[in-house]
Design brief:
Layout: E1 2-7, E2 10-15, E3 18-22, E4 33-35, E5 50-51, E6 55-59, E7 62-67, E8 75-80, E9 83-87, H1 97-101, E10 108-113, H2 120-130, E11 134-139, H3 144-151, E12 157-159, E13 161-163, E14 175-179
Helix pairs in contact: 2-3
Length: 182
Amino acid sequence: MKIKFLENSSFIIESEGKKIYINPEKEPTDASLVLFSYFEKGADFELKAKINWPGEFEYNEIAVKAYNPRGEKIIHSFDLEGIRIGFLGELKKLISQEKLESFMDTDILIIPKYQDGISDKDLKKLAEEIDPRIIILSGEDALFEGVFRELGNANPERTKEFEISKSKLPSEHTLHVLLERE
C-alpha cells in the first residue's frame, strides 16, 4: 500500500490495483473510490463511487464508515489489505466516545493539520485513545513542531510517499510519519 499527500487535505492511497482519493481538488479519472470531508465537495463529480455523506458504504469491495461528529467535517474509517485506516480530515475538536470506538482498531491514522484545526493537546489525546500503529500527519510545516513535541517525537519519518504492508506494521511503538507534498 502506498499513501501520498497531494495538497491541502488531499491524499491518494494505492492498494492492490485500487486508487482511493481523499478530498481531491479535481475529479480523478482513475479512482476506485473518492472520499470527501465536506458535504458540498464532489457534488459536481460524476463518479458513482464517492462518499460525501455520513453512513456505511461499500464501493469496489471497499467498506467505509463515514461519520459527522458534532456537525463538523466527515471523518472516515476503512480497511485495505487487512489494514484499518482512519482519516480524521479537518477535525477541530475531540470526537465523542461513541464515534471514537469505531477507530479503536485503527492501524494507520491520517491527520491533516491546519491552523484552525484540532489543538496539539487534543490531537495527542485522540492518538492516545485510538493508539494506532502509525500516525501520518500532513499540512502546513510550521504547525508540526508542537504536534510532534506533544506526541513525544521530535524526529518523525519524513517522506513524499509512505509504503506499508500488514507484515511491516510496527508492533512495539507508534511510528510517526510526516507526509510532504509531491
